[in-house]
Specification:
This protein is α/β, with parallel strands linked by helices and about 325 residues long. The protein folds into two domains: about 190 residues, inorganic pyrophosphatase (n-terminal core); about 120 residues, Diaminopimelate Epimerase, Chain A, domain 1 (Roll). Helices cover about 35% and strands about 15% of the residues. The chain is built from ten helices and eleven strands. Helix 2 links the parallel strand 1 and strand 2. The radius of gyration is 20 Å and the shape is globular. The protein starts with a helix and ends in a 6-residue tail after the last helix. The relative contact order is 0.11. The mean pLDDT is about 95.
Length: about 325
Amino acid sequence: MEANFAQILEKIKAYDKIVIHRHQNPDPDAVGSQAGLATAIQAGYPNKQVKIVGSSVGDLDWLAQPEEVADDFYQGALVIVVDTANTPRISDPRFDQGDFLIKIDHHPNRDAYGDYYHVVPEASSSSELVVDLINDSEGALVLTQEAARVLYAGIVGDTGRFMYNSTTTHTFNVAAQLIGTGFNHSVVSENLYEMTLAQARLQSIVFDQISFDGHGAAHVMISRELIAKLGLRDDQVNSIVSTPGRLKGVLLWSIYVEKPDGTYRVHFRSKGPIINVIAQEHGGGGHPLASGANAQDQAEVQTIIAEMVAAGSAYQTQPTVN
């Protein structure tokens, strides 16, 4: 059932135990919206037990880290899932073991799971939605400096430092409100965008090995051999997802990261052509210009590359609207 903030706040008020989930392979928005919401609830209701769960956050451990939560904690608990479009992507399968389930997200709502869901695809990030929820709570949820820090990281991460077209006047107003709490926003940005020497070498390899069709579409293959050679963890490879977009002439691109089982994690990005429809055809999804999927083998990889080339060509032949 679609719910407004007032209905969600009533549920938060009603439960003494709350567990907050986010998606697998978390990005700053997943961790930020999860930890920011938990911190704001805990500050407003000190007697509630509020937990955040999920797999390792990798290089984002400076933002927040998941907690160990016993199975019986879910009995009679409210469960909230943030920034996760569909149930297979939820980190920790116990999300459905609580008493009531709420989804808060900004991805297209193809999987309307939960007893309540609040989904705003036009929002820049789930962290922005959490700030809206806090502001709507009339003081019941508290925007502490720590909550502001992690929520700001989520917004900066999902807007690409306010460069993506999902950034609105409201996004800037929310960011200003968060900075106004007094945390060191420069440190947050430094942490988000610093990289190891191995990641820098991977960036160089991307520029050296990128394949470009000359008409807008580009792709990069990242093998297990290369990941091992550079001494990288899989989550550290995510640092190059936006790299091809820095090249003039690249409109859309895909990055294929080989996984230990021989399948591929596929990252899609675009400056205009809609690419989430391609991701959906391959077991994934996401935003129109930023999505992810999986490819089972090289044959599926080649199919996706061809679909991306076709999408780029179709976009460039569209009539210009004056």
